[in-house]
Design goal:
- By secondary structure, this protein is an alpha/beta fold.
- The protein has 3 domains: 107 residues, Nucleotidyltransferase, domain 5, CATH 3.30.420; 91 residues; 118 residues, no CATH class.
- The protein is 56% helix and 12% strand.
- The protein contains 13 helices and 7 strands.
- Strand 1 and strand 2 form a beta hairpin.
Length: 338
């Protein structure tokens, strides 16, 4: 069994091949885009004349490459980039050395694995991220329009983004250049809103096909956007060894530096930031709407207003663990206050 470590980049990929005794038998590179790599590795396997296993770090396109190599009958392991850096610390770093490190980890069966979801789930995640970027662009366009009004000493009426509000905005007298800016921003806002509608329609159709999304929406304050993001990034509830691992995966646990005395810092912020943001927003709503969640929040607060941020993050972490339990057992939300 040959072990192949690959340091994959957009224009060149370095490969290192170890034999069954851990000896380097070949070091080479593939020049060109990622699409050239699968065919090259297949040819390399035929030249070696034996079974191979492949390892590379998770990056853009790692899922597609994983599917291509698996379809060719190879054993593929995708390494977690952050954990690889923790294992290997060296002042020398280049593509050849990185490929050899990955091949060595693969040979020793010590690769810190990253989860590679199916292609359908990866596409679902990408669409969720795309919607989030569209919402950011929409908010930026609205902010520029409000700034334009403030620059000219105008006070925007309530409901500025309704049909009536937009008509009001179009009727305001601006200078030639500012009027042009207003018109372009309104066109941009309309185009973004149209794209958001199309994307949300596709996401709604997908969510209707996944029962877990409706299950999580039984939690007070959790809407379809939060539920679909959690389900998409959690993928399978059974891939977590225990319930506490969920908070670690989403970066909701504090950093720890413990020797003699336990020292805890800010949260690690590992994993998808989009899910952390959505779950934190949902936690505020759950605190307002559910007595059990509110009691949990107040218990962490200890009556100290300075601990409200800490209590909010703890509540969001609690909700994530509850969501994992609900997905595992297929049960709807049950309030602790009931």
């Amino acid at each position: 069994m040959y072990s192949i470590g690959m340091d994959v980049h957009s224009k060149v990929t370095m490969l290192c091949v170890l034999d069954e005794f851990g000896k380097v038998v070949k070091e080479t590179s593939v020049r060109g885009p990622l699409g050239h790599v699968p065919a090259f590795v297949k040819d390399l396997q035929r030249c070696l004349g034996g079974p191979v296993k492949v390892c590379y770090e998770a990056s853009c396109g790692c899922g597609w490459l994983h599917d291509q190599l698996r379809a060719a009958g190879m054993r593929v392991q995708v390494a977690h980039p952050g954990r690889v850096r923790m294992i290997f610390r060296s002042k020398r770093k280049n593509d050849r050395i990185d490929a050899r490190k990955l091949a060595t980890l693969l040979f020793l069966d010590q690769v810190p694995l990253a989860h590679v979801p199916p292609a359908e789930v990866r596409q679902w995640r990408a669409l969720i991220e795309y919607r989030s970027k569209l919402i950011g662009q929409r908010g930026a366009a609205k902010s520029r329009l409000r700034a334009l009004l403030r620059t000219n000493g105008m006070v925007a009426p309530r409901g500025l983004w309704t049909i009536r509000g937009r008509h009001w905005l179009e009727e305001q007298a601006f200078s030639e250049f500012e009027g042009l800016q207003r018109d372009m921003l309104l066109v941009e806002l309309g185009q973004i809103q149209a794209r958001v509608g199309v994307v949300e329609g596709a996401l709604k159709k997908k969510a209707a096909e996944v029962p877990a999304v409706g299950l999580l929406m039984t939690i007070p304050g959790v809407g379809i956007r939060t539920a679909e993001a959690v389900v998409a990034y959690m993928d399978r509830a059974d891939r977590f060894r225990r319930n506490k691992s969920v908070g670690c995966y989403f970066g909701m646990v504090p950093c720890e530096d413990t020797s003699v005395k336990a020292r805890f810092g800010h949260i690690t912020k590992e994993g998808p930031s989009l899910v952390r943001r959505l779950v934190t927003e949902a936690a505020w709503q759950a605190i307002r709407r559910d007595a059990g969640v509110r009691a949990y929040f107040e218990r962490v607060c200890r009556g100290d207003r300075d601990r409200r941020k800490i209590a909010l993050i703890a509540t969001a972490h609690h909700l994530l663990r509850v969501m994992h339990a609900m997905m595992t057992h297929g049960e709807v939300w049950r309030s602790a206050a009931a």
